[in-house]
Amino acid sequence: MRATIISRRYAEALADLAEESGALRRVRGELRTLARAFEDSAELRTFAVAGRKSRAEKQALLRGISAELGLSDLSARLLDLLIHKKRMSILAHVADGFAEEVDRRLGIVEARVTSAAPLSEEQRMGIVKKLESITGQHVRLDEQVSESLIAGFQVRMGDLFYDGSLRGRLKQARERMAYGG
Question: What's the pTM?
Answer without folding.
Answer: 0.72
